[in-house]
Design a protein that fits this description.
The protein is an alpha/beta fold and 242 residues long. The chain has a single domain, classed as Alanine racemase (TIM Barrel, Alpha-Beta Barrel), CATH 3.20.20. Helix content is 44%, strand content 16%. Helix 3 links the parallel strand 2 and strand 3. The longest helix has 29 residues. The chain is globular, with a radius of gyration of 17 Å. The structure holds pyridoxal-5'-phosphate. Pyridoxal-5'-phosphate binds next to strand 8 and helix 9. Its cofactor is pyridoxal 5'-phosphate.
């Protein structure tokens, strides 16, 4: 057991080194400072012990996409100073639970969710940071929330306004997942445009959450400020589940 834990730590440390080098190289190529880009370790389907290892290795931002998994994990790691990012599709009835541990919700994609999060955040005396998730899949019909979630780009300004005006929550910026099977650069450029419109109205909403293990270079090149990295740090989730 002790050996296993040491091995796991060595694997994660090596992965983290590789990811940091990839981000540094991408920043250099784009003429950006690595200080402009935060790495969020997405720990879904990996145990709390991995979160602990990541914290020991200097990570402060962790991400989860399902409340059932995130809530107990965050509780188990309650003694560690971490920023929890909720990045998955969110049901209104989970708002209270998520507000209990999350510092940032990346996946706000409809008005009713804004109201629920704001009410729960106020009740908890918190100031939850909210990003508008943008649907960048050109194949999904207008107004239809695709399987990966996200608001239609045309609806983002109204949603941003609702978040900015709601008491108890703060508008942090925008987030997207690049559609599968297409060049992520086109999607991230679109996100950048949407982000610029939001930022022109709300100058403090500077976050652009984009980029995962497979497309982080494209995201950095196209202006991402937050990367959500799972597999490249913790390995294949399918091998661990069960
Ligand atoms: C799982 C997940 C990630 C991390 O993806 P990897 O490809 O494993 O790096 C990022 N964003 C969201 C919304 C996710 O659900």
């Amino acid at each position: 057991m002790v050996q296993e834990a040491a091995d796991r730590r060595a694997v994660i440390a090596a992965n983290l080194q590789v990811v940091r080098e990839r981000v540094a190289a991408a920043c250099k190529a784009a003429g950006r400072s690595p200080d402009e880009v935060r790495i969020i370790a997405v720990t879904k389907n990996h145990p709390a012990s991995d979160v602990r290892i990541l914290a020991e290795l200097g990570m402060v931002d962790v991400g989860e996409n399902r409340d059932q998994e995130a809530a107990p994990k965050a509780a188990e790691c309650g003694d560690i100073d971490l920023n929890w990012h909720f990045v998955g599709q969110l049901q209104r009835n989970k708002a209270a639970s998520v507000v209990g541990y999350a510092h940032v919700v990346h996946s706000v994609d409809r008005g009713r969710l804004v109201e629920a999060l704001a009410a729960r955040s106020r009740a908890a005396g918190r100031e939850l940071n909210c990003l508008v998730q943008v649907n960048l899949d050109p194949d999904s019909e207008q107004g239809v929330i695709g399987p990966r979630g996200g608001a239609d780009p045309a609806d983002v300004p109204d949603l941003a306004k609702a978040i900015a005006e709601a008491e108890g929550i703060v508008l942090g910026g925008v987030m997207a997942v690049a559609p599968r099977g297409a060049d992520p650069r086109a999607a991230f450029d679109r996100l950048y445009e949407v982000a610029a419109v939001v930022r022109s109205r709300y100058p403090r909403a500077t976050a652009i959450s984009a980029g995962m293990s497979g497309d982080l270079e494209a995201a950095v090149e196209r202006g991402a400020t937050h990367l959500r990295i799972g597999t490249a740090l913790l390995g294949d989730r399918a091998a661990i589940v069960g």
